[in-house]
């Protein structure tokens, strides 16, 4: 996210009761134009809307022939994994989609959002529409039609407070309208088309308030544009002028966002959880465009985008834990967008993690289960019974938030070691002061961890009551007083106990990929430039046995540099004279440090003095301190070795 977007007044976003990083990003409002043109420029070569007619439904993702072919394949049990996926969707539909409780317009506790309602509506309508298309059972049609009418009778879809709610609600009505078009009553079709016009299209065109998602370079751009495009393609014949405006404004505004978020290598600045959300809506939009207009107008050709599913594949370590930098929870969740990439690029190995989660029953309760039906359009084209593990041990990406990840054997067992290292800057969207931090899994245990996000729901209001703003990314913001967001409480280095520089970027300088060493070197100089002249960090797995961290710190000429080397861990530490012993169940690891300046072993509490900070039970911080005198350079080597 460009720095200017963080200096503005913003609308905070919702996270459910389960602390999940899959919820929506922060919408940034600021004065000025949305850059909306009175007559949006038609993409080069134009788009052919001639097939978007009333007699051509369904058309989003799958047409009638595609549904017939899919149904035949599922009924014949031609692919065990495809059948399992279908049965999972049907299970979600029957247990949640058929919920008899009426959908009602209700703001959440912050009085800002109806996002829960939008998502509930999407799950109900989408899964019931799928179930009806696949079974012909009228109960699913009746339920979907009831819920379509319910949300179309709302006074609005909350566009003025939180436009993301509109994006998800528009998606719900779009798929219900399109997939059930020929079976819905004429009055329901009319009501749905009118609601999409009034509550979505006209609100997106309204200049009485700012619609900054068009300029955002984060998941808001993807979700809002994705929902509007699906709605426009589904109901085009009713309001062609407005629908065309939505489609072409999305094509215009989405391209620069994609360039920021995925170029050059595909790693996503906001981390794995927001990838699961934003990229899912991104591929939904691309698939909807291709299935109806025959093109996505080059959006999928954005540099780095074709590589991003590989990034996501490498973001999961052992024990179903993400490399959870920035605002992300540690527990991994399904990356449903990977199905589109596997189909698009004929690469089923991108589903290596997904098939494992599907078979383990994790898909039914995954964070984005409301969109499960969409992946059947891609799964139907794949051989799901021949998924191989990735062949490369290391993945690296530069861009706004450079990262390097290592899987030593991809078995997810005690022999597999996992390492994730990140650079970037705290001022990025959803950023923490975590540049230089790393997670490390070995021998079945996560030894170096990241606390991850703290739920925004109460935190933003508490900080506001104290005169702060959780979404102020400035250097002196109270955001950085939050325990889990500050650099002192990450597995990285801090100098003179000072905050990392918000605008300082840690850059990836070298990847290490040899037969004996796997890792990377990052330059952290900008991050600590007010406290040290330079800083570099190398983190690597050596001989498939030890983790070695090498730090070089040069002090400024005007002051010394007290180095705090910290690692957050769930292992119980015992400080001895020459090492720290880390014990996690029956597993033991030794942390040893040496340097040109003698380090002093330390532990720090993970209990915050701030009443608003989330508790961190069962966690510890270990490491050392050492002081580098002014104008001197010191090197430190820290090793994690098994007992």
UniProtKB/TrEMBL annotation:
Residues 27-39 have a biased composition (Basic and acidic residues). InterPro entries: Chondroitin_lyas, Hepar_II_III_C. Its main location: other. Pfam families: Hepar_II_III_C. Residues 23-47 are annotated as: Disordered. One of its GO terms (cellular component) is cell envelope. It is found in: Cell envelope. Residues 418-628 form the Heparinase II/III-like C-terminal domain. GO terms for molecular function: lyase activity. Signal peptide: none annotated. This is Heparinase II/III family protein. It comes from Bacteroides ovatus.
């Amino acid at each position: 996210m460009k720095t200017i977007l963080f200096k503005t007044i913003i609308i905070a976003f919702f996270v459910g009761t389960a602390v999940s990083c899959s919820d929506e990003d922060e919408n940034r409002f600021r004065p000025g134009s949305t850059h909306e043109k009175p007559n949006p420029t038609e993409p080069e070569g134009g788009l052919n809307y001639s097939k978007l007619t009333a007699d051509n439904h369904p058309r989003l993702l799958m047409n009638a022939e595609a549904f017939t072919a899919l149904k035949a394949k599922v009924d014949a049990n031609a692919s065990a994994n495809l059948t399992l996926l279908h049965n999972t969707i049907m299970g979600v539909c029957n247990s949640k989609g058929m919920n008899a409780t009426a959908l009602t317009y209700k703001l959440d506790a912050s009085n800002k959002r109806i996002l829960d309602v939008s998502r509930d509506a999407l799950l109900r309508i989408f899964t019931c529409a799928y179930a009806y298309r696949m079974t012909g059972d009228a109960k699913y049609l009746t339920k979907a039609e009831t819920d379509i009418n319910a949300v179309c009778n709302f006074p609005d879809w909350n566009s003025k407070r939180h436009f993301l709610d509109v994006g998800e609600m528009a998606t719900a009505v779009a798929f219900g309208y399109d997939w059930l078009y020929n079976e819905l009553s004429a009055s329901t079709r009319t009501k749905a088309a009118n609601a999409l016009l009034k509550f979505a299209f006209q609100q997106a065109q309204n200049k009485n308030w700012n619609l900054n998602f068009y300029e955002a370079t984060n998941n808001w751009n993807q979700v809002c544009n994705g929902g509007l495009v699906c709605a426009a393609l589904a109901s085009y014949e009713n309001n062609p002028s407005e629908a065309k405006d939505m489609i072409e404004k999305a094509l215009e505004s989405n391209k620069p966002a994609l360039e920021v978020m995925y170029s050059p290598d595909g790693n996503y600045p906001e981390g794995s959880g927001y990838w699961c959300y934003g990229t899912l809506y991104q591929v939904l939009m691309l698939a909807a465009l291709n299935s109806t207009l025959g093109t996505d107008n080059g959006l999928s050709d954005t540099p780095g985008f074709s590589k991003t599913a590989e990034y996501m594949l490498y973001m999961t370590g052992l024990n179903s834990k993400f490399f959870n930098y920035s605002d992300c929870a540690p527990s991994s969740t399904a990356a449903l967008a990977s199905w589109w990439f596997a189909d698009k690029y004929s690469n089923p190995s991108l589903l290596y993690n997904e098939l494992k989660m599907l078979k383990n029953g994790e898909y039914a309760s995954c964070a984005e289960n409301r969109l499960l039906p969409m992946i059947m359009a891609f799964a139907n084209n794949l051989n799901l019974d021949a998924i191989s593990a990735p062949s490369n041990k290391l993945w690296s990406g530069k861009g706004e938030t450079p990262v390097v990840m290592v899987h030593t054997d991809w078995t997810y067992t005690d022999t597999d070691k996992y390492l994730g290292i990140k650079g970037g800057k705290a001022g990025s969207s959803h950023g923490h002061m975590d540049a230089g931090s790393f997670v490390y899994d070995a021998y079945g245990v996560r030894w170096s961890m990241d606390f991850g996000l703290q739920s925004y729901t109460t935190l933003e209001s508490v900080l506001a009551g104290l005169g702060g703003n959780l979404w102020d990314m400035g250097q002196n913001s109270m955001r950085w007083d939050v325990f889990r967001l500050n650099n002192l409480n990450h597995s990285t280095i801090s100098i003179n106990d000072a905050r990392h520089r918000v605008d300082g970027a840690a850059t990836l300088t070298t990847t290490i990929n040899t037969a004996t060493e796997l890792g990377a070197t990052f330059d952290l100089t900008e991050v600590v430039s007010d406290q040290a002249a330079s800083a570099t960090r190398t983190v690597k797995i050596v001989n498939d046995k030890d983790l070695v961290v090498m730090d070089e710190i040069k002090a400024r000429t005007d002051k010394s540099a007290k180095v705090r080397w910290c690692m957050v861990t769930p292992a119980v530490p015992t400080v001895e004279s020459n090492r720290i012993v880390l014990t996690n169940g029956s597993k033991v690891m030794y942390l040893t440090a040496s340097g040109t300046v003698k380090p002093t072993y330390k532990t720090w509490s993970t209990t915050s003095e701030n009443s608003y900070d989330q508790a961190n039970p069962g966690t510890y911080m270990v490491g050392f301190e050492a002081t580098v005198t002014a104008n001197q350079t010191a090197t430190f080597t820290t090793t994690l070795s098994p007992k």
